[in-house]
Specification:
mainly alpha, 2 domains
Length: 199
């Protein structure tokens, strides 16, 4: 019986010495935890100031951007591709009808917003419709519109359409430099095909 109590006392004694020896480390950990919660947690001091500054900035600049956006026409991807599963010509006709009333300077911006609102992987029918309407309206594809269209075709892995649109953009540029975003998409296409040559 004396041996068991000696072992228990020994274990308790060793445990208390370990805790006593680590008290500074434990205190530092608790202090760091509290400081982190105070600075970066749900009820942090810093986020209130940053949120208030962001809200004030948005209130000033938001009125201008909302006014500018309310004047621009808006297209919904769901309306354009409704009933066009596997039929890009249906989506193209829907898009033609939607942009018929737009001023010529508003069409490119509306098409860019349409593709951006369609998400990371726009439907193939939507991409085909935007490409067709862009060609019909003679829109400049060496622009954000071309970049967004190429990005969508790249994510859908439609490399033949990607190459077709890219060649149209390069013909439009006629030896001039491509817009940075179009150039990046062209480089991504070359990398996917493995056509990059080392010089």
């Amino acid at each position: 019986m004396a041996v068991i109590s000696l072992d228990t006392n020994y274990i308790v004694d060793q445990l208390s010495q370990a805790v006593y020896g680590l008290r500074i480390e434990i205190a530092i950990f608790v202090l760091a935890f509290c400081a982190h919660a105070l600075l970066f947690g749900k009820h942090s001091i810093l986020s209130r100031k940053a949120d208030m500054a962001a809200k004030a900035k948005a209130a000033c600049g938001g009125q201008i951007s909302n006014a500018a956006q309310s004047d621009a026409p808006v297209l919904a991807a769901e309306d354009i591709i409704r009933g066009s599963a596997g039929k890009p010509e249906v989506a193209t006709n829907n898009l033609r009808m939607r942009v018929a009333g737009f001023a010529s300077h508003e069409v490119a911006q509306a098409l860019v917003r349409l593709l951006q609102s369609a998400g990371r992987m726009p439907q193939v029918e939507l991409l085909a419709a935007v490409s067709a309407v862009g060609k019909e309206r003679s829109l400049a594809l060496n622009s954000t519109l071309g970049e967004t269209l190429l990005k969508g075709l790249y994510t859908q892995q439609s490399m033949s359409e990607f190459d077709s649109v890219l060649s149209d953009i390069e013909m439009e540029a006629k030896g001039a430099s491509l817009v940075v975003g179009v150039g990046v998409q062209a480089l991504k296409g070359e990398l996917r095909r493995g056509d990059i040559e080392a010089h």
